[in-house]
Amino acid sequence: MVASLRVRSFLVIAAVALSMMACKADTDLGKAGCHLLKALPDGGATNVIVAELSAGKDFLSFGSVECEDLICVLDQSGVATVLAQATANPAVLADPATGYCSHACAQGNTTGCTPQFQDLQNDPSLVMSCRALVLDDDTIAEICKDPVKCQEYFNNSRSAFFCARGGDGGTGS
């Protein structure tokens, strides 16, 4: 009886420990270093370079292989930083533009955009929120009536909302 109680206690403790480890969602959300991409006329993709960035805009890129969800964002604050570096060192203008991994989210969702890569959630400067980064949902729905265009422009993601840092700064590429 005592051995049976010990085995049960061990199993309960093991189950609790395993469930606590399973609750930690270590994803690449917020991970830096993904490449912003743009479509080529032939249907291929190439890197966006720093010289192609515009101040005051967020940039969203689909197809970034460095990210689980293939979505890379460079918010307007990041753009400002990169452009300031390019002012100090013009050679930076020819470099590929990089951002951080993101994913689509539901408008109004306050929990789905907590960075989970390593310990990014513990850095207040890296806080992310769910916000519109591309066209509104009605425009996306209209474009996505054509599956080829939907794939080309949105990689079949029909959401205007993505996890990003900073405030709503408009749309990008």
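Next protein, fold it too.
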Amino acid sequence: MLSGQLFPAGRIGKAHGIRGELVLVPDVDMPAPLPAEIFLRPAQGGTPRPYTVTQSRQHHGTFIVALEGVEDRNAAETLRSHAVLLPAEAFPSDEPPLASLPGIRVFTPDGNSGERELGRIASAERPAGQTIWSIISEDGNEILFPAVQEFILSLDTEKGEARIAPPPGLLELYLS
């Protein structure tokens, strides 16, 4: 799955203490423990730079992270607001990172042994542990789709296509 690609996973918050530790604020479900290497990209953009994680622990919905070469509070403060990127391999193999989903074309069965394009995924979020896709239909309607295994027939992030079987009545709520 998407080997070698980097996906946004959070951002660096404030420094934690005086020994160079950082607060990593996740935007997605982060794997715990963190991978041995993470990538940071300045908030203004630019090329992501790899950092070796020497220590990490979860703390009140965030991670406290120590990075090789970041030895004191001043060095940690220079990384504040940097985007945190993780390689695809850091995420569970049965679920792609949410950041890989926007733009994917979504298809549904049309009842005539064929299928029709419903729209494209605009965003994916995981409030309260449930993944929700925001699909924008071809006529501009937003469809909030519960992305659970029983409703997803196939998902191919490399091809940029998903095939779904929404629960009865869901599409009628949004498209009528």
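About the second fold: The chain has a mean pLDDT of 85.
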